[in-house]
Design a protein that fits this description.
15 strands; elongated; two-stranded antiparallel ribbon; mainly beta; 1 helix; single chain
């Protein structure tokens, strides 16, 4: 039994060392993917409807992520990386209806340039967990809504429909610099790298008022170019 256990350990160690880059090597990993984002710690937006203040709950919003990481293999089991990425964050807002208006296609889109600095720990051949810190720089922030207004007669029949789209630049009210904590996993097979990373914001996204923080989950695919 001891011999079998020793053999398993030796084979596993050999596979791990073969699966990773050699000690002291560098690589570049360009990647693209999708983000699923929302807000934590606050409602995100308060609105006035029918002379009442309404709390609007955030929902998940799909976006794009893309960038590249430079990675250094510090040992057989540990890698270090620093990268530059474009990340779309924000949230979707639920539709609403009042006596004379319908609001839909409502969302807050926030675009960032981020610099994830990560430690990768290889647990199995090709499989690693990663965590670190991520400074962020705000690029743009806009809210969008389509409003459909109408008239209602005494019988409740709607007529005279009119539709407008409103896009508001929110950048001036947002914090320009931020910090996130990224944690995730990745799997590498023949230089193709599949990754999943969750970013949670440390600071509020707004300069004043609401205490909302970013919550972004991303899934990406990349290709490792060994230098």
């Amino acid at each position: 039994m001891k011999r079998i256990a020793v053999l398993i350990v030796l084979v596993t160690s050999t596979l791990v060392s073969m699966a990773q880059n050699k000690l002291g090597t560098w690589s570049v990993i360009p990647h693209v993917g999708v983000s699923i984002s929302s807000l934590l710690g606050g409602s995100g937006i308060y609105e006035v409807r029918d002379n009442m203040t309404v709390e609007v709950k955030p929902h998940a919003l799909l976006g794009f992520v893309g960038g590249a990481d430079v990675m250094y293999q510090a040992s057989d089991a540990v890698g270090l990386s620093a990268g530059l990425s474009f990340v779309q964050a924000g949230c979707k807002l639920e539709d609403y209806t009042d006596e004379h208006t319908i609001g839909y296609d409502r969302y807050l889109r926030i675009n960032y340039v981020t610099m994830p600095i990560l430690i990768h720990s290889y647990l199995l051949p090709g499989f690693s967990v990663k965590a670190g810190i991520e400074p962020t720089l705000l690029v743009s922030a806009k809210s969008n809504e389509i409003q459909q207004s109408f008239e209602v007669d005494k019988e409740g029949k709607k007529s005279n429909f009119h539709e407008d789209e409103f896009t508001i630049d929110m950048k001036n009210g947002m914090r320009k610099f931020g910090l996130s904590i990224p944690v995730g996993v990745s799997y590498e097979y023949e230089n193709v790298v599949l990754g999943a990373l969750y970013h949670v914001g440390v600071f509020n996204i707004y300069k004043y008022g609401d205490s909302s923080r970013n919550s972004v989950f991303e899934v990406s695919v990349g290709y490792k170019l060994n230098l």
